[in-house]
Design goal:
Blueprint: H1 26-52
């Protein structure tokens, strides 16, 4: 059984036009995760403080 009904069994599926996998530097990825978690924590702290005051 073929994966694509409109192509013969021997044909390969079409390849994407652009690369969909983007390589990211591990250091940049770590910085972005740290910044995102830090902003999330700041939002939670600000929400708690605004309800306390």
């Amino acid at each position: 059984m073929t994966r694509y009904l409109d192509t013969p069994a021997a044909a390969e599926p079409p390849k994407p036009d652009i690369n969909t996998h983007i390589r990211t530097n591990p250091r940049v990825k770590g910085i972005l995760w740290t910044a995102g978690i830090g902003m999330g924590l700041l939002i939670v702290i600000a929400t708690v403080i605004s309800h306390v005051l």
